[in-house]
């Protein structure tokens, strides 16, 4: 038997064994292990012990999304955006994704308008929270519940 035939036979045997192992194994899929408590912790890391008040922030996100891989959202904050009174940052959090702190936008008085939009992934039906930090240090928030029919952020074990 030539060397090339031995290699081919060995390769076939390897592929047959590997295929058998792969077909006998199963892949477990589970959702990300984040919790509402992890979101609360992420919020505390950004806000510290400051009181976050509801109001001034409008969070526009669809209440029902078919696909969690791309969920559009827009956050606007009531602010004159002057040098004396402006939005310093807008933070987006969610409770069931692997990373509860989704994004932070940093603004200044020259932004003209306190409004941001983006697309995010959502692992499951959950609450999304937007928090705005104003130039005077006050914190304002809004939240929205989103129902996701096809989850994103799924991890393989």
Can you count the beta strands? Answer: 11
**What count of helical segments does DSSP give?**
2
Largest sheet, if any? 6 strands, mixed
CATH topology: Immunoglobulin-like
Share in β-strands: 35-45%
Low-confidence stretches: 21-31
Span between N and C termini? Answer: 43 Å
CATH architecture level-2 label: Sandwich
* Order of secondary-structure elements: HEHEEEEEEEEEE
Class based on secondary structure composition and strand pairing: alpha+beta
Question: CATH class, please?
Answer: Mainly Beta
CATH superfamily: SoxY domain
Shape label: elongated
Task: Write up what this structure looks like.
The strands form three sheets. Strands 2, 4, 6, 7, 9 and 10 form a six-stranded mixed sheet that branches. Strands 3-5-8 form a three-stranded antiparallel sheet, with no helix packed on it. A two-stranded antiparallel sheet has the order 1-11. With 157 residues, it is an alpha+beta fold. Helix content is 22%, strand content 40%. A hairpin with a 4-residue loop joins strand 9 and strand 10.
Topology:
Blueprint: H1 3-24, E1 29-30, H2 36-47, E2 52-54, E3 57-60, E4 64-67, E5 71-77, E6 87-94, E7 101-106, E8 115-120, E9 126-134, E10 139-150, E11 155-156
Parallel strand pairs: 2-10, 4-10
Antiparallel strand pairs: 1-11, 3-5, 5-8, 6-7, 6-9, 9-10
């Amino acid at each position: 038997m030539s060397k090339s035939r031995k290699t081919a036979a060995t390769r076939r045997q390897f592929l047959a064994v590997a295929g058998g192992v792969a077909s006998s194994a199963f892949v477990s899929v589970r959702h990300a292990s984040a919790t509402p408590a992890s979101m609360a912790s992420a919020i505390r890391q950004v806000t510290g012990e400051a009181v976050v008040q509801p109001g001034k922030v409008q969070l526009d996100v669809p209440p029902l999304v078919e696909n969690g891989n791309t969920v559009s959202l827009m956050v606007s904050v009531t602010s004159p955006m002057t040098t004396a009174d402006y939005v310093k940052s807008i933070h987006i959090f969610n409770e069931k994704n692997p990373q509860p702190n989704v994004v932070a936008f940093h603004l200044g008085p020259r932004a003209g308008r306190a409004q941001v939009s983006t697309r995010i992934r959502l692992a499951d039906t959950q609450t999304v929270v937007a928090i705005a930090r104003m130039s005077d240090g006050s914190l304002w928030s809004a939240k929205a519940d989103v129902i996701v029919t096809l989850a994103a952020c799924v991890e393989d074990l």
